[in-house]
Amino acid sequence: MTDWDLDLERASSAALAALAGAATVDELEAAAAAATGKRSPLASLQRSLGAAEPAERRRRGAQIQAARARLELAAAQRRDELLASERTAWLAADALDLGDVIVTNRPWSVTMGHGGLIPAVQAELEDVFVAMGFQVAEGPEVETDWYNFEALNIPPAHPARGLWDTFYVDLGEPETIVLRTHTSPTQVHLMEQAVATGTLPIHSVMPGRCYRRDTPDARHLATFHQVEGLVVDRGITFADLAGVIETFTRAFFGPDIQSRLRPGYFPFTEPSAEFEITCTICRGAGCRTCSHTGWIELGGCGMMDPDVFAAVGIDPDEWSGFAFGFGIDRCAQMRAGIADLRALTDNDVRFLEQFS
Ligand code: DAH
């Protein structure tokens, strides 16, 4: 063992001991900063790497990485323990002292409620994308015209506005504040934040509720849910987009359901595509639900349009990306085989109870 290794060994075990000895979350955070922060022995060992020969530098670099990972894991474990015990202490201090009161049997029977189908499907979709390396973000449901339309390359009076029948909010100048008609405006918030904080790339999905002035029918509700996806990184191609869509389809719907992309038009992507999956009702044979095509449209996708990058200040020569957006309600409908989506809002417990 070289002197350098001994130094690393000593610094790691001192830091591990300090982490294990932390008695409160505050102490733990201080010990964690001292263990791996800028002024830690680990950081100065890292700074000393420059002086070493290349092969030795690589070996030492790997040792430091491993030590850092060990310390971070120890800090996370100790943090969990401390948070759990602080919570237990807090609950005990907060408990009602009922003294000699005798608690009798409940005089009425209680029916437990349960979560609904859509939140459950949303959580499952998030899990699928998180497993593929995406982060989950959310944005506001009330948007300005800029986020819902203009920044997405849909200027006022653009014919494409007809694709989204919009509810306007009676606030400020007429028709300037909208209930978002899709989750795409959250992309714009995310890109703006990443540019402002210098935290590109982005790999995120953004689920949420949307609103359109549509008459409800078997496949549409005026209040519905979408999940948006956005990847902005270096060297992203259409093949990456197609791969993500196909991987998602199989993970969520199962291996016998396929996805396909058909040329489409959206103002914020170029090229754009419509994203379809094998009809889950007839498994592709053709039925009434899929108008005898064997395919069901889930949403849209495409490569980021340079105009959208320009609106948020991203350099299209350095960055490229793709986006997609599709209906969570439609996914739930396809998976659960629900003939008419309006059943979800009818409040008939005999229907809703099936999804507990
Ligand atoms: N926002 C579109 C809609 O609601 C769907 C969509 C299409 C989202 C293409 C995207 C995209 O991100 O790239 O109709």
Report on the architecture of this protein.
With 356 residues, the protein is α+β, with helices and mostly antiparallel strands. The protein has two domains: 3-103; 117-355, BirA Bifunctional Protein, domain 2. Helix content is 42%, strand content 18%. The chain has helices at 3-21, 25-36, 41-47, 54-94, 117-131, 145-148, 184-197, 238-253, 306-312, 328-336, 349-352, and strands at residues 135-136, 142-144, 177-179, 202-211, 223-233, 259-266, 269-278, 295-304, 320-327. It has a seven-stranded mixed beta sheet, sandwiched between helices. Strands 2-3 form a two-stranded antiparallel sheet. The radius of gyration is 27 Å and the shape is globular. It starts with a helix and ends with a helix. The mean pLDDT is 92. The structure holds 3,4-dihydroxyphenylalanine. Residues 182, 184, 228, 266, 268-269, 272, 299-302, 323-325 line the site of 3,4-dihydroxyphenylalanine (DAH).
Short descriptors:
two-stranded antiparallel sheet, 11 helices, 9 strands, 7-stranded mixed β-sheet, BirA Bifunctional Protein, domain 2, binds 3,4-dihydroxyphenylalanine, 356 residues
Cofactors and ligands:
3,4-dihydroxyphenylalanine
Distance between the termini: 59 Å
Low-confidence segments, ≥5 residues, pLDDT <50?
Answer: none
**What structural class should be given to the helix and strand makeup?**
alpha+beta
Largest sheet report: 7 strands, mixed
Order of helices and strands: HHHHHEEHEHEEHEEEHEHH
Secondary-structure blueprint:
Blueprint: H1 3-21, H2 25-36, H3 41-47, H4 54-94, H5 117-131, E1 135-136, E2 142-144, H6 145-148, E3 177-179, H7 184-197, E4 202-211, E5 223-233, H8 238-253, E6 259-266, E7 269-278, E8 295-304, H9 306-312, E9 320-327, H10 328-336, H11 349-352
Parallel strand pairs: 1-4
Antiparallel strand pairs: 2-3, 4-5, 5-9, 6-7, 7-8, 8-9
Helix pairs in contact: 1-2, 1-4, 2-4, 5-10
Bound molecules: 3,4-dihydroxyphenylalanine.
3,4-dihydroxyphenylalanine is lined by residues 182, 184, 228, 266, 268-269, 272, 299-302, 323-325.
